[in-house]
Amino acid sequence: MPRKSTARLFRGTPRNLSYLARCLRAGEIVGVPTETVYGLAADALNPAACQKIFVAKGRPTTDPLIVHISTLAELDRIAIPNAAALRLAKKFWPGPLTLILPKNPAVPAIVSAGLPSVAVRIPAHPLFRRLIRLSGCPLAAPSANPFGYISPTTAEHVRASLGSKISSILDGGPAYIGLESTILDLRNPARPRLLRPGAISREALAAALGRPVAWRRPKATKSNQAQIAPGLLTRHYSPRTTLLLHSRLTPSLLAQSGPDEAFLFIAKPSGRMAKNIFWLDARGNLRGAARRLFAQLRALDTAGYRRLHAEYATGEGPAEAINDRLRRAAAV
After folding, report:
1. Which of 168, 187, 209 is the last residue of a domain?
2. What's the gap between Cα 125 and its chain centre?
């Protein structure tokens, strides 16, 4: 049986934020809200504290951590920026954009999987940014879930998954984006490369940079190989229930399946609804669908179904990010 949760949820009061900042300065780990998904934070410059993240999550040290800072003035402390990075930072930070840059030597090897680069961003969630400022240190924070499982978008998701392994979770309400940040490799600013799609689209990045941004789905990678950025493994964000993907969920597919299989549409389908029919956004709004994807997958994964079916999103921007997460969630 899973161990009982002992984690305490903290509202974002000044007193609570001061207490959690002291915990972080003392080398403890804390569940934190971001606009993307909930994270598990530690002092990014404290290797022993960061090691606790890997232990709590069961995460291989070959998968690097994203370092979160509260102001652009702190970037030099973490990375060696270039003109392209500063241009994007001024346009999209605070926000769901992570940049891969050459790292500052102050960043421990455990944060960067031993590589000479680092992932860094300024989050848009006001409570998390305030906590970074109060702690006085940059915070490394991957998603606050067991490694490879569906990312958490509420404080209760964190408590359900990691509540027996951590003591404190800052409750900042549901994540309002719901998918992890866009990751852009800017080590060579002449050849920007999208590593993970997110809420900030490839088109928006290309327009801001004035040059194309390359992206193709990465080849299969294994967890024993050092990754340049998080979220690149072939299987990730995965429910324990088998997940099958379809370009479209058709009436014939539903007719051939039993009540122990669930169906997840992007938009609410028309007609009579069976109890095993679910959707992400009533009108098919892709930002709404992205916001609810992980929460809905978690709910279905614990509902006792034998198999889950989901359909791909169509279009650009959010569709690219939704489909990336679905492919990884369904990979075997």
Report:
1. 209
2. 14
The pLDDT tens digits of the residues spanning 180-204 come to 999 999 999 999 999 999 999 999 9
Strand order in the sheet with 242-246: 242-246, 307-311, 261-267, 277-281
Token digits of residue 272:
């009579």
**Residue 15 resides in a domain:** yes
Structure confidence at residue 280 (pLDDT)? 97
Give the model confidence (pLDDT) of 14-61 as tens digits: 999 999 999 999 999 999 999 999 999 999 999 999 999 999 999 999
List the strands of the sheet with 139-140, edge to edge: 8-10, 168-170, 30-32, 39-43, 139-140, 66-68, 117-121, 97-102, 182-185, 193-196
Q: How many domains does the chain have?
A: 2
Q: Do 162 and 309 reside in the same domain of the chain?
A: no
Residue 102 has pLDDT above 50, yes or no: yes
> CA–CA separation, 69 vs 89, rounded Å?
12
End-to-end CA separation in angstroms for the chain: 26
CATH number of the CATH domain containing 90 = 3.90.870.10
Residues 292 and 235: their CA atoms lie apart, in Å, by: 20
Cα(251)–Cα(254) distance, integer angstroms: 5
The single-letter DSSP state of residue 7 is -
Q: Are residues 188 and 318 in the same domain?
A: no
